[in-house]
Amino acid sequence: MTVHELSEPTTEVVPQPDSSEAPPRPRKGRSKAAMLLVLPTMILLGIVVLYPVVSAMVMSLFKDPTIDPATGKFVDQGFAGLSNYTHWLFQRCTDTTGASVSCPGGTLGSLFWQSMWVTVFFTVVTVTIEVALGLWFATIMNRAFRGRALLRTSILVAWAIPTAVTAKLWYFVFAYDGIANKLLGTDILWTGDTWPARFAVVIADAWKTTPFVALLILAGLQMVPAEVYEAARMDGAGAWQRFRSITLPLIKPAILVAVLFRVLDVLRIYDLPAILTGGGGGDGTATTTLSILVIDQMRQGFNSASALSTITFLFIFAVAYVLVKVMGVNVIDTQEQQRKA
Amino acid sequence: MKRVAAAAVAVGVLFAATSCADQGIDAAAQAEKLNLDGRGPITYVQGKDNSNVVRPLIDEWNAAHPGEEVTFKEQSDQADQQHEDLVQHFQSRDPGYDVAVVDVVWTAEFAARGWLQPLEGPMAIDTSGLLPATVAGATYGGVLYAAPQTSDGALLYYRTDLLDHPPATWDELVGACGTAQQTGIGCYAGQYAKYEGLTVNASEAINTAGGSILAPDGVTPTMTTPEAKAGLQSLVDAYRSGAIPRESVTFQEEQARQAFQSGDLLFMRNWPYAYSLMNGQGSSAVSGKFAVAPLPGKNGPGHSTLGGHSAAINVYSEHKATASDFLKFFLEKKSQAFFLSQGSLAPVRADVYDDPELIEQYPYIPTLKTSIENAVTRPVTPFYPAVTRAVQNNAYAAIKGEKTVDQAAADIQSAIAAAGS
């Protein structure tokens, strides 16, 4: 998104050349210099971003080593084509005879589509809750009152705690004889049953990241000039009307950024469900997300884990691309509306 | 042009990737024969030394062996991280880790990758005084790959203020649950959360009923036998009848201990570590009111799942003779007694358990000896992660009633078959 925003103005800024002969030259020289300046960054990015992705893709094309019955030692299986991918996408496993069968229950292969669904569920539900609550918190924090600075600082505490610690904290809260059951007077198996386990994860995630969303939105709120509200008030607009027609459209970019950040975060969520529920609940897999599946698979075979992480990467990349496209349009629209207003 | 270059690079990388892995096994086979009489300083690697039992031993060794000093590298206290750390060092053929401690369930995997020095020939150690189960846990394909270091076996904790004598069989245990009901407490709990502990508990139930998860060949799954199903069924029935309380599907070791310690359970299956904790702590409601017995079986003692660790020599180590002496040093009676007295870690030598002085200090050790003597290792297979996953997922679903025992057993069976191919 940032690249998109930055590149547009630069092309506008380039002065229109006067003579018709000259144009390519300064431009080319300039872009060469620009290339030189950008090159080190590109190389660095290539090493740190591209290399792991490409090597994972290469690894995913090989079969996992298996045991040679004669020696009892692992031997390589060689090139696998796309069989690691079909293993996940179509849940195909091989049995002892080498025949392709549907992955039996309890294997990781049988969990792919379920974890995909669980991950998307967490993403939609937590992001919705966090943005709704974050918006509410932000509007409260935006008002002038005594101790506002203190409130803003203290709301950050939850966000500042490492996720692993948050997860352990909620693990104790949701224990069978923990605080949650004592307070509610219930005997829910928070980490043992399907939906309680899923909601335990949602609650813990919302607790941790709502402050972050609130602060992003607060930053957006503070950009809205007070005069606009005054003018609206003069025109007799009520509180709800002011919120609907002024606040919401003006902070839309901030909200969209928050949504993008959170969606990408939750799509690769690992530590919170892993520590809180061990990916368990229900029949033992109710909170297994894609990332948990990747880590579990890594203990069984690197090459099929690479295939899974590549699939996960492509999925998240696609979601990010769509979001950035849609949001890019939206942000520009909003800015234009702002300009017109 | 660019595309061609990219494709060429990709193909090159592919070939590089295929060839280097094969070399790994060959290199390891070569390394097995090297440095057998190498002496010099070595590095010893294990997880966090929580009760400070290893450092004093190493200090003692270093004082007695100038020129062959041992450096202690402490890993994290998380088993998964220890495993990953070892894999990374072995994979890069790093000779820096001379002696590494391996969990009993990792031995087969590491041995099959050729990373552990077989303890044969000049490297052989005397295993005659060791509890046989601990030796079995360090053996893969008939070859000993590590020296047992510490062991662990399950104990049945029971309330002496509510019962005169412990149940000897599983049926007796379930029969005694009436007492728990009258007192208004839960009857029996082990560790049934979905994690490694569930594999341990499920294996105990299956082995005690006369079944097994894998045949001794380490390949053929045996989960669909009537005995194996009966074992799983015993847990399922006890959970359904309430003999195993509902909340125990969220229990790991500590939650079970806390429930027993606050007086909420009549029986608990746990490791010996809980003994001194529950007797010593001021907050314990059961201090002095409990004792231990072997796990109840069909007619006599049941089969505990073997826990514990072994010490193995890195196949790429340059000082294997020193490393071998160091393994033997850990097996001396004095070291083993120190493991018990300093760290409450179960010794692997039979004679330590018969020491009257130690028995007086640790009244549970004769029971622990019975437990380890009857202990069964978890499936010894290089595909252990897949096997334990299949057991955990299906046993959990079966206990909670989300899958029938027949279905769960069949799924474990075919999941294990799929893992090995």
UniProtKB/TrEMBL annotation, chain A:
Regions that span the bilayer: 33-54, 116-138, 150-173, 250-270, 307-332
Keyword Amino-acid biosynthesis: no
Keyword terms of this UniProt record: Cell membrane, Membrane, Transmembrane, Transmembrane helix, Transport
Chain ranges of the ABC transmembrane type-1 domain: 116-323
Alphabetical list of InterPro entries matching this protein: MetI-like, MetI-like_sf
Residue segments, region Disordered: 1-28
PROSITE patterns reported for this sequence: ABC_TM1
Location of the protein in the cell: Cell membrane
Membrane topology, from the record: Multi-pass membrane protein
Keyword Cell cycle: no
UniProt cross-references to PANTHER family, sorted A to Z: BLR7065 PROTEIN, INTEGRAL MEMBRANE SUGAR TRANSPORT PROTEIN
Family, similarity comment: Belongs to the binding-protein-dependent transport system permease family.
Name of the featured protein: Sugar ABC transporter permease
Automatic annotation (TrEMBL), chain B:
Domain of life (superkingdom): Bacteria
Pfam families per UniProt: SBP_bac_1
UniProt entry tagged with the keyword Transmembrane helix: no
Organism: Rhodococcus pseudokoreensis
Keyword terms: Signal, Transport
Family label: Belongs to the bacterial solute-binding protein 1 family.
Protein's name in the database: ABC transporter substrate-binding protein
Lineage of origin: Bacteria, Bacillati, Actinomycetota, Actinomycetes, Mycobacteriales
Leader peptide range in chain numbering: 1-21
